[in-house]
Design brief:
There is one protein chain. The chain is of the alpha/beta class. The chain has a 7-stranded mixed sheet, sandwiched between helices. Strands 3-4 form a two-stranded antiparallel ribbon. Strands 5-6 form a two-stranded antiparallel ribbon. It has 9 helices and 11 strands. The chain has 2 domains: about 1-60 and about 210-325, Vaccinia Virus protein VP39 (Rossmann fold); about 60-200, no CATH class. The protein has helices at about 15-20, 35-40, 60-70, 75-80, 85-100, 115-125, 185-200, 250-260, 275-280; strands at about 25-30, 50-55, 130, 145, 175, 180, 205-210, 225-230, 265-270, 285-290, 305-310. Helix 4 (about 75-80) crosses helix 6 (about 115-125).
Length: about 325
């Protein structure tokens, strides 16, 4: 499945590489959740009694979206289904910033979520070009509108009795009052898509807080063979995730050094080729892959060629290691 909003640094294009190395693990942990691109691309049926999935993020907007999607996808649909217009974008953006302190309740209240905040936030990310939507830093420029991302992109219809296959099939639009397509049809498609996402997320444990909370022994190898996907904020020249992200990449690498020899941990660490990961992780496999070229694939292509994933010794090997390079 695909996340319903664009995400800077998303890893959907390398998810197949990750699952080739992880295999069908009993336990999966993603401490830097973001758009959940790798989890949503999992090729294995996740609902067996022995399988556990845990995700975490420090960003309360992110956590609120996934919690709301689990618990009230129809209300999220109502809030997210709105035409793209600049005045509404500015108004919702300002309103969302005023909710920042309130949604910090995620860190102390396991039952908290706000479906309206979730829908507005996903709609805003899908309408805004850049990486500064609802980020805690000043907004110095007007946003550019992009009408075809995330919840605003064209969605396929879901066939009756399709058992969840409709998200992957494109069917003719449903007639509404004798007219093909229309707003009612679009809303129905978005609702169907969100219900499928809610079904996929039903058993996922969603946490909010520091990344280390979900990497202790109890939520990882004590639950059995565990896949740990680490995508921390990169810490090299040309990247800027804000002051709060400085040093996290190095701390994550230190955790990998300390835990990489555990045979019950299959670890994937993302970063740029010029980070220090490779120097500190002897015996780990480094795989190159190519990300998209930024928003609308309009980037110069330099950063996308720097992407690497380091896999711990317990990860599976592929018959052809070149499968890990995306052309």
């Amino acid at each position: 499945m695909k996340a319903p909003f664009p995400w800077f640094g998303g890893k959907r294009r390398c998810a197949d590489i990750v699952w080739q190395r992880f295999g069908d693990v009993d336990n999966y942990v993603e401490p830097f959740a973001g758009s959940l691109a790798v989890l949503l691309e999992r090729p294995h049926w996740p609902f067996a009694e022995t399988r556990i999935e845990t995700v975490n993020d420090l960003d309360c907007y992110v956590v609120n979206f996934w919690r709301a999607m689990q618990r009230d996808p129809e209300a999220v649909t109502d809030a997210a289904d709105f035409p793209v217009m600049e005045a509404e974008l500015h108004a919702r953006h300002a309103w969302l910033h005023r909710q920042a302190e309130r949604i910090e309740a995620h860190k102390v209240d396991p039952d908290f979520y706000d479906a309206r905040v979730a829908g507005f936030w996903a709609w805003g990310l899908s309408s805004w070009i850049g990486d500064n939507f609802c980020r805690p830093k000043p907004q110095h420029s007007m946003p550019y509108l992009e009408g075809g991302k995330g919840v605003n992109r064209q969605l396929p219809a879901r066939p009756n009795g399709g058992q969840g296959k409709g998200v992957n099939r494109v069917l003719p639009p449903v007639e509404v009052d004798g007219v093909p397509g229309g707003c009612a049809d679009r809303h129905a498609r978005l609702r169907s898509y969100f219900l499928d996402l809610a079904d996929r997320l039903r058993g996922v444990r969603v946490c909010c807080g520091d990344w280390t909370r979900v990497l202790r022994p109890s939520p990882t190898h004590r639950l059995g063979l565990s896949g740990v996907f680490l995508d921390p904020p990169y810490d090299v020249d040309g990247t800027d995730y804000g002051a709060s992200s400085k040093g996290i990449s190095g701390a994550v690498r230190a955790w990998c050094v300390a835990n990489g020899d555990n045979p019950l941990l299959r670890i994937a660490l993302c970063g740029y080729v010029d980070e220090a990961h490779g120097d500190d992780l002897p015996g780990w496999e480094c795989v190159a892959w190519k990300a998209g070229g930024g928003y609308n694939n309009l980037g110069d292509g330099a950063n996308r060629k720097r992407e690497r994933i380091w896999f711990s010794p317990a990860c599976l090997k592929t018959e052809n290691e070149q499968q890990g390079v995306l052309l």
